[in-house]
Write a structure and sequence with these properties.
Helix content is 37%, strand content 13%. It has 15 helices and 14 strands.
Length: 438
């Protein structure tokens, strides 16, 4: 497939569409990072997608490493997923009533994700994390939570304290509109720092309901947990009576066949999921031990509801995606091998050009840091050369490679990314690194 990259006339229609969009939507977008504000290039307006590629309104094509921020693990517009959604839509788009598909999706997830014995479907990752924290507070009778600087768990009030991702990109340490009382119940400390967790637990004995963590941080770039870190969190929760919540909205089915908790052999009390389990449609889920989930209404006193929860279109897309991932020829080993090849190729080409670069990665996700060593936390991620990342991003976009417009976001691969796409990407990267030399 020919990748077009005429930088001189690139995205004229996209530029005009963004000007129009700003008249009707804040910043012209419905999610902040899409604005490409810090990237200093026009955001391409996407017309369609197929396999590993995006196609914009100007007719340009891009090898896509954003993949709708993670969900499209089998590639865009996979025929099996599209057919499943079409069949579901013909039966009606929403009922507000129980369906067989909800049972099938819930059963499939509980068979795959080690710690999830029972779950509740919701409409987004944010809903999932908000609901999991409410459940933890209700189950423990405690108010405080511990989160980690640079970890993003959605835009719920209790999470917008020292959050990463879009907030970091736009230089906003928190958000106006978050009540002080809410902020006071959210305790923060650096990722990969167990002594800092000990200090917070010691200063708040009997008050911490939960520790919530991205087991692999994906909202400060991609930052891997150090050896023993996740097990240390598990042990500290056991000692303190706090619940351990793994936010696997991003890492679910990305890090490995049993998600991060299977890869690292850790059993959280509660898990949040999203992205992949909806096959590209809006979805989320929270689940865990039966004794905890049985405290959720209508069988328990902890209330949570949603009109479109378990929407039949999202359920159909999610089931079709999981069928492709777990039946016949699971792609997890191939995905990991492709990610290894991409990361190793990027680093070797950067070294050849004299450009410092590290690409921490696991499964089919990774991060790109213009730094000598991989960061361990948000403070270290912030010291990487972000200006060089934006230059790299713009240069790659001009060559038909679509990366996240922020150094604090991860990249993703799909089963549709083959050797040809990897080689094209590395060839483009080599040219870009030569331009960034010095």
């Amino acid at each position: 497939m020919q990748i077009e990259h005429d930088a001189a006339e690139r995205m004229t229609r996209s530029h005009m569409l963004m000007d129009e969009a700003r008249k009707f939507m804040p910043g012209g977008v419905n999610s902040p990072v899409r604005a490409f504000g810090s990237a200093k290039v026009d955001a391409p307006f996407i017309r369609r997608a197929e396999g590993a590629y995006l196609f914009d309104e100007d007719g340009k094509s891009y090898i896509d490493y954003v993949l709708s921020w993670g969900p499209m693990i089998v590639g865009h517009a996979h025929p099996h997923v599209v057919e499943a959604v079409q069949r579901a839509a013909q039966r009606g788009t929403s009922y507000g009533a129980p369906t067989r598909g909800e049972i099938e999706l819930a059963k499939r997830i509980t068979e795959i994700v080690p710690s999830v014995e029972m779950l509740r479907l919701v409409n987004s990752g944010t809903e999932a994390t908000m609901s999991a924290v409410r459940l933890a507070r209700g189950a423990t009778g405690r108010d405080k939570i511990i989160k980690f600087v640079g970890c993003y768990h959605g835009h719920g009030d209790c999470f917008l304290i020292d959050a990463g991702s879009g907030l970091a990109t736009h230089g906003v340490p928190s958000s106006p509109g978050v009540p002080k009382a809410t902020a006071q119940d959210t305790l923060t400390c650096p990722y990969n720092d167990l002594p800092a967790v000990d200090a917070l637990l010691g200063a708040n004995v009997g008050k911490v309901a939960a520790i919530i963590v991205e087991p692999v941080a994906g909202n400060m770039g991609c930052v891997l947990p150090q050896a023993g870190y996740l097990q240390g969190l598990r042990e500290r929760c056991d000692r303190s009576g706090a619940l351990l919540i793994f936010d696997e909205v991003m890492t679910g089915f990305r890090v490995g066949a049993q998600s991060a908790q299977g890869s690292f052999d850790i059993r959280p009390d509660l898990t949040t999921l999203g992205k992949v389990i909806g096959g590209g449609l809006p979805v989320g889920a929270y689940g865990g031990r039966c004794d905890l989930m049985q405290q959720v209404s209508p069988v328990g006193p902890i209330y949570q509801a949603g009109t479109l929860s378990g929407n039949p279109l999202a359920v159909a897309a999610g089931l079709a995606t999981l069928e492709l991932l777990y039946e016949d020829d699971p792609p997890f080993d191939r995905l990991a091998a492709s990610c290894d090849a991409l990361a190793d190729g990027l680093m070797s080409r950067a070294r050849a050009a004299g450009v410092p670069l590290c690409v921490p990665h696991i499964g089919s996700m990774g991060g790109i840091f213009f730094a000598e060593t991989a960061p361990r936390n948000f403070a270290e991620a912030s010291k990487a050369d972000t200006e060089r990342y934006y230059q790299f991003h713009a240069a790659m976009l001009g060559r038909g490679v679509y990366l996240a417009p922020s150094p604090f976001e991860a990249f993703f691969l799909s089963a549709a990314h083959g050797q040809d796409e990897i080689e094209r990407t590395l060839a483009a990267a080599g040219q870009c690194f030569d331009e960034l030399r010095g």
